[in-house]
Structure formats: structure tokens, C-alpha cells
TrEMBL record:
InterPro entries: DNA_helicase_DnaB-like_C, DNA_helicase_DnaB-like_N. It comes from the Bacteria. PROSITE patterns: SF4_HELICASE. Residues 181-403 form the SF4 helicase domain. PANTHER family: REPLICATIVE DNA HELICASE, REPLICATIVE DNA HELICASE DNAB. This is AAA family ATPase.
Amino acid sequence: MNVVPIPQRSSNLDAEQALLGAIMLNNEAYDIAIKAGLREDDFTEMAHAEIFRAAGRLIEGERVVNPVTLKTALPDVDIAPNLSISQYLARLAVEAVSIVNVPDYADAIIKEWVRNEFSQCSQLYAQAAQMRDDLELADQIEEIDARLQAARARLAGEDADGKSFAKVAPSSLDATLKAKSGEKAFGIDYHIPPLKQLIGPLMGGTAIVVGGLTKHGKSALAQQISRGAADEGHPVFYYSGEMSAEELAMREKARDTGISVKRQSEGALTDTEAETLFHASQKVGKLPITVQDRRCTVDQLIAQVRALKKASRGVMPVVVVDSMLLLDRNRFERRMNEYEFADYVMDKFKATARSLNLPVIVLAQLKKNTIEKDRRYAIKRDVAYFKQAISRRPRASDLYGSVEKHADHVVIVFNPEVVLKDMEPAEGTDEYVFWEDVLSSVKDRAEILLSLSRSAQWPARRTVHWSGVRHHFAFQSDVQRNLF
């Protein structure tokens, strides 16, 4: 492999020298620099990093920092041609003026570090293009992504090394008091009261898994969350690996009008219904929802999410991935089985939620044998038999992979009506009468299960009304909207 040479690091010597001189002039400058986010690794000159480190050790030991004390605390370092360490330190101290500009010096040093990181990453990308080993390439890309995220955080003035309780305790209390007074909601409201009772509002940095069997309504719940957040003005990025953007738009119009997607597709409408759909289309068209219905890899999708975050101008976006097993795979990912890939996807999206401070909702399929419908050893198929068939609620452990270990909440949609319809006996038999009796008791009802949570009490569940035509989970407050 042809190795692309890594360029020499550029430096801002004037800023580094001025800052070190200011520390010797007034030791408070060290604390000011630290509060500005400066780290010893930010210095491009190794000798300057050693001086900064030595100054920190002296200050921590409650000793005065000056050219004499620094000289004794420093290891053997090369400073400058024709200058001893004592002479160099003395010159820095003499040329120092004040500590007023220390934050500016620190900022200039940090930005030079960011430029160097970007330059290094550019060269690493060039090296990656020549790699032929998939594992080596994946490791290289992970390293580049991590370095770029760190550089982005430093440039934005974020606390890459953590946030103290002294800083976040007052700000979090302020947010809570604002929410209590109704001045500002804490998190993102998505207008689904039963779900909010279980997990609260959507919070930045959280990863939520919505699981369910086919046709149980997990996509409908994710779309309803998206709609609620969009109605509140939050941009939504919806990855749809199965349905087209047009079908998703039709579902939203079905939610508002009660005109099914099937009838919309067939054009079987009255003039009044066509006008109703026209107005609904105008309303839906104003929602800040972007749908990506082209298959993407995990990395391609995360790159699009980052672009959305940048374009959101301070408004927290919501990301929905429908679903984790409907993502394309690169050569490295194709080596994974479905369980390994599911775990890998959740790990990546949890990291994305944290680094970009936004909520990510990932849809997950339950294992096919979660609801056992083949009861070959049953003596008879009576009411008890059909009730038993819908008594087993899915759990987080029924999801593909160990995705629950990365999730802040695991929500599962369970629709007993779907389970029973898949067991329909022959019409006219005694079994059909028993089946119909049990079916009527759960008709148009579904359950939202909180199967696991890091911050809420679980397990817990809420029973809601389900409208298959509208693809909508309804509750008492929906009566006024004619959706219940």
C-alpha cells in the first residue's frame, strides 16, 4: 500500500507564547485558560505543552508559577536554538503584558488544533481509499469519525471532556421550572398522551426502540410521533426502508380525513372527498418532514442526519429509522448475521443521538416465533384457547440482537386483533364462534408496552383505540378531532 504522508502540524506560536507568559505573570491565567476549554494536547509545540502541564502541577500543589519554579518542575526539553530553558521562560515572562486576552489566546490555540485535526483526517481519508482490508478500513473510518466529532465539539465550544454538575444542575432546574410554569416544554411534545405517560417527551441524546410484529402498527406509531413533533415545528428526518415517501404522505392524509390509502390509490372518491383530500394535502405539505426512501447504509444515513442537524438552526430535529434491518450493508457489515447487525446499528445510532443531542427512534422487528400460534397439542380450540393465544406480551428480549442494551426506552406495539385474524377458523364451525367472541373483545384496540427503560418505571402498558383505516392510535382527547 502506498502510504500518504501526514503533513506537519501548523502552529500559532504567538498565541502559545503569550498565554504561557501570562500564566507566569499572573497564575490566575491558568484557570482562565482551563475554563476556556484549553488542554495541554492543544499546543502544537511539545515544549509548550510540557510548560503548560508543569504549570498545572505546580498550581495544583498550591505553589507559585514563575520562571524559577517552572525550571525545576520541567523535564529536559528542547526549547529554542541558542536559548536555555531558563532564558526562554524568562523571555516569555518579560514579554507578557496582562491576562485580559487569555481567553482569546486559548481560543486561537484551540482553533489551530481543530485545523490540524481536519488536515490529519483529510490525509487519513486518502489513506483509507487505498486500503483493501475491510476490517482495517472500518477501523480507520471509526477513528476519523471520532476525531472529526471531537473537533466539531471543540470548535462549537462544547465541553468535550464532560460537563460538571456545577454547570448543568442550575440549567436543568431552570428548564424544569419553565416546563412547570408552562413557559417552555421540557423536551419535544409529540401529542400522544398514553406514550408520554410511559416515557415522557422526546429528549436530546436518547435512543428509543419501537418494536413489533408485522402489521401490529410500529410504523404507524413512529409516523404519529413524527407528525406530533412536526406539528410543534421540529424538523423530522424519516428513513423509510419499505414504504415510499408518497405512501407515507397518503397515510398522513388518511389520518386527517379517514379516507384510506387504498381508496386514495384507486381514486375511488366522491367530489367532496377529493376536495377534502386537497385541503389535507396542503396541510401535510407544510409539515417539516423529510423522507429518505432510498436504501442507505448506516454511515450514509448518519451523514444525512448530521446535515439536517446543521441546517436546523438550533431547533432540535427528530430522527426515525424504519427499520434497522432495512438498511443497506457495506462489505464489512455483510459479514454480520441479523442479530449482530441489529446490535451494531443501535450502537451507531445511540452514539449519533448523543453526539448530535437529538432523539433517534429506531424501529425493530420482533422474532417470528414471539407469538406462538401453532398449538398442536391443544385438546380443543375454544374461548380459553384463543384467549391464551393473545395472553403472551412481547418483551425487549424478543427483539433481534441485544438492541435493548443501547436503548433508553424500548416500546413495543401489540395488536391482539392481528394475532387472532391470523388464526381465523373455518366459518360456520364451533371454533369460529369461539374465535369471533374473543375477537370482538379486542376489536379496534391495541396496546403500547414499555418493555424496558433507563428512566421510567417498567414494565407498563397503555390500551389505546386503533384505527386501521387512519393508521392512527387514538385516545380520549381525539374525540374532539373525530379520530376516536
